[in-house]
## 1
Amino acid sequence: MFCTVCMFILYLTFHIQFVRSVRDDKLGLNDKDLKRKRDPIRYALSYSIAVFVIGFLLHLIIATTVDVLLLPENYRDNMNQAAALKIKQLNGKCPMITAHRGLASQYPENTLISFKAAIEHQPDYVELDFRSTVDGHLVCIHDANLNRYLGKQRPGWRDKPTESFTLQELQTLDFGSWKSSEYSNTPVATLKQVIAMFHQLDANSRRPTLMLEHKTGTVEQLLEELDAFTDTKQFIVQSFNWPFLQQLKSKRPDIRIAAIGGGDMSESMMSHILKMDCHAVHWNDQITPQIIDQFHQHGIAVWMYTLNHARQWAYANQIGIDAITTDHCDQLRALQDH
């Protein structure tokens, strides 16, 4: 903002001087025959400076507007505080990458083709959401109803709870056309299918960790699916439902959990999270450097969702975020590898 004000004052000073020169005919602009003969260098230089200053001002205004739209209100203070606290990522490197619902920017979210596309870009985590069907299967669906996915399919089913359908009913639906006709007839993915797909990946390659976000379903249902893993480091369970995580942790202390939340974090919330023995906290961009630093002191990673712009990625990196959740894992990976 300071640079913008300075450049604006500079432009006003130049503009006033330029207008006076034109008015007094010091540049020879009032005489058409002499327009290109009298002091053409001064005219060209003055015009070029004017264009540069206006362009620079527009750039600053656009950049400031983008920052206001994409970043939290106090982002500059946060960056200064993070620098003062010397916050660094727990892994000592740049933030890890979480593929949000797969490569959701290009493919239908939470589907096998979306997960497979994301894996090609070697994210550190692949995140998915799971819900329970009425007959006890865990399926990869984010929304509480099917309205966003169905389009013109089954109008009577759109507003019904996802949990009210059987797996067989969901398997009759197209979960790809809402994204693009290119993905028509994409089936619903079950958690069992996704885990099986991950087991088929080469263990010697850079296999991502599965980030399983609980929406609905019981601890017992989830534990039955998790038995397919040979190592608890292959996955992590996260949820907005903290009591669910505590129940899971009480039955399987070896399972890593992450508490999801958003907004301002109170001292009581932080205290609660610390008592839960979380591996990580998954928060939105309202988390502050002081909170990040406190979690780091307890060895707890801090992840941020859902960031889809390079400015947001840079901000998260500067304030010490350990993992960035994004719909564009391909772009973020390319940026980090560049």
## 2
Amino acid sequence: MLLKEPRLNFTDVMNRKAQEKGIQLDNDQQRLIRHLETLAETLLRRRAAFAGLYLWGQPGRGKSFIVDSFFAALPLAQKKRAHFHTFFRELHQQLNGQGLDAALLELMGEARLLCFDEFHLHDIGDAMLVKRLIALAIARNVALIFTSNYPPRALLANPLYHDRFVPSIALIERHMTVMALNGPRDYRQQATGHGVFSEGAYLWPASAARRQALGLPDASGAVALTVGHRTLHAASSPGEFLHFTFAGLCEAPTAVMDYLALCEGHERWFLDGVPPLARVSPAAQQRFINLVDVLYDQQRRLFIAAACPLTELVAGVEQEDIARTASRLSQLTTE
């Protein structure tokens, strides 16, 4: 008796999800859903050919919603989803004692589908790692899906490094289907309930009464925390909340790997004294953006005591990723 091949009617899946959320899928979203249904057929029939999708668009247009739904619904065991930051943290750890290809192959494992959320590049070192990742996936017929806020040609926009990444952009455009979701609606701002992250709060004004009502700690002086081989300084002893000042976390030389390591042991984060970002250095702005990315992807509760409303907090910031940060912070309670 022949076993029936698994199938995925992804159009039906997404129509049900859209109905549950009370949203109407736009033309670009429906086109993406049809494309993913075709990709599912390729994967489930084990066709020996590389398939890639590079999906970009403004924050809140449904990229992660649709791709995460596809990943969850696809009846394929050999699949892996990773946030960009998390994957590269693991890759740097694997590089200790072995070559790049061996480290990448170990992380890829037996996966026939790799999904990367919030794909972006600011570092030339990471860009070179991405180039090799794409080449290996093509050679091994491992399907790739990237979601990003940027079209391929806007990756690694820094003119000091961009020319060195142009061959990788050509690789993406040659081997991956590039699609865009840029509808007029930011669903994050219109919907309610975005997981644990949205259970946090944006405090402005950050009155003593509001802080007390939420159980937020007061600063008690620098408290040394060991993170790997580094020492960071919290604003109070860790308890129900991991408490940092903006200056202590974002204006200090911290990194994504620090935030990921701290997420392993802390579910609630309180960032105190956040100023208008236009007043701080670009490096501090980027650390704040990275921190929000990590906490959102790891689904940690974030509480922010700010010196101004959110619109003023992000005004005048020229960092490429600030729109995504503003969209995510808009999900926090402001009452």
## 3
Amino acid sequence: MNKKKQITIYDISEEAGVSIATVSRVLNDSPKVSRKTKERVLDIIQASGYEPNAFARGLGTGSMKTIGILCADVADIYLANAVSYLERELRKEGFQTVLNCTGYSYEAKKDGVKRMENQRVDAIILVGSQYIEATERRNQYILDAAKQVPVMLVNGYLKGNNIYCILSEDKEMFFEVTGQLLDRGRKNIVFLMREESYSGRKKKEGYQAAYAERGLVYDPEMIIQFNEKIDKVKGLLIEFYQEHPQIDAVVATDDELAVGALKFALQSGIEIPEKMEVVGCNNSVLSISCYPELSSVDNMCEALCVTVVASLMRVLEGSEVPVRTMIASEFVARGTTNN
């Protein structure tokens, strides 16, 4: 056998006179292979210098020991942390991962899930609620994927067979945070959000419910959807403030948006937190990288991901697993609020 060429499982099976599934069983030390055959295959593998990949090992077991992870953008701090936690936990369980950063467009997300199915992974993890659309028809691609392999949703919810959702208490925490601001006399609270994701919608519902609970009416213009970086958020709010000088608080769906709001306030000479309070979300490194340090909702990203992997292992074992698991969030008060 020519050692200079790339040796494949097909080469090993041909020289040993066995099927590629048998070679895979040998690689996985399966008791279904006779000792004589196992020794012959292992001798050929050793002599050839063959290095098996996940595909080769998975053929004889029905498991590729590989999990597909999809996220919209790994440059996003929350998503990057989530992917890191998931990969760490999956390594502990002996699984490798295939990562696909799909971007935010609907077609790209659909295509990413389909491509992951074709990778013959054991399960698919969708990181972030950007994958959950507002209508059942647009979620059909996820329901279809779940007919092939288990689908785990990190902080998103979709009802369907073989779909398991682990979520933060986004609505509850934004209801609580907004309510605290209202109770301190802040009545003109800007709600800053990105896309209309499942999580974003829940956070907005919490904001709206806090006003309703107190018999107050919020100004719809105070809900701003803006999917941009810090400096552009600052610029947007500087312009917005010219027409809405009554702003006395900002609640943002992530820390990056909140830091943009903080920079706007400081540049505009607005005292934080005396004249304006600012709250972010995710309790990311950004929250302690600014001054004053940012108060933020900690949605327990690490706990979410640990629970996702633990639940997935039970699913793969055939155990009963709740289709919806809620993880409690908490508010971390720092220098941008009067707590």
## 4
Amino acid sequence: MRPGTQIATLAVVVIIAIGTAVLPAMADTEGSSTGSFNLGNAAPSVTSITLHNADHSDPTISDMTPQTEYAVKIEISDANTLNDISEILVIIKTNGTGTGDSDSVTDKATYKWIPEGGGTWSKVGPTGTWDIDASQSSEPDDLGATAGTWWLNFVPGKVARESTSWDIYVNVTDKGSLTGDKIVWGKTMNWYGEISAEDTSYSFGDIGLGDTNKPISTPSDGNINVKTISNGNYKLSSKSGNWSKGSDWAVLDWDGTLDAGHFALKVDGSGDVSTSNYVSTSSEPITDYSNVNAPTAETGDTKEIYQWISVATSGLLPGTYSGTYYVQIANEA
């Protein structure tokens, strides 16, 4: 017999021997015990915060301007599904303002999302011109998922402080009172300003040829009131042009020479003609208002503008001359 055949036969014998072995009877060799564990509630997590234009488009942005609408994109995850989330707070603030500080028109605004009503965004504070566009703010379509995206569309208030150090902070709370949060820094609030005339007309009354430095007679306080609103330091500038009486013209002079047929206007903010400056046909800063500290009140600050008129000794016909005086507000960094 060949060696290979012997090996195969022996293998068969061994298999049969094992299969026919008789084992002794034994009692039960296993016991059992029931175990359990409790999986605790997982805290939610804010995974991303980005700032966008109001239409939610990319790329992300870092600059804001008061009274312009923007959108915050918030990405959140929760292992217990997004149905576990009970509240989202979004705080937009200056860097030196704490998240627990009171809301203010200059430095902090708070917005909130709750799941009631299928998801509702609202402004918590402050009152005033900070606003929310609830129609464009949203939550994920599927709150049964473990991650999703929220959008908050908001409008910074008129006097949201001009600064390169604005933050966006998000805090999310679940139904077990566990929280997660995230903050992003380095957003910019650009300068904003507006101006309106409270005194829309004024008069110097009766003037004689050759009169100099005659003050405003109407209004009776001798000045023109304008209202300014700004979120950062600003300057007021003014200009005018030639004034007319029908087809007759009085030519604006801005260097004090007062040639025939000319008149000159001086202006300042304190009522002191000795520190005033001439009004030109191009905008020039008004003395006392070349660098005004701000933010102003959100309803505006009233500024008084004093004027004095001088007329040439000849070249002007009798009658009432009228013209337009312009006041402009601009950034003074």
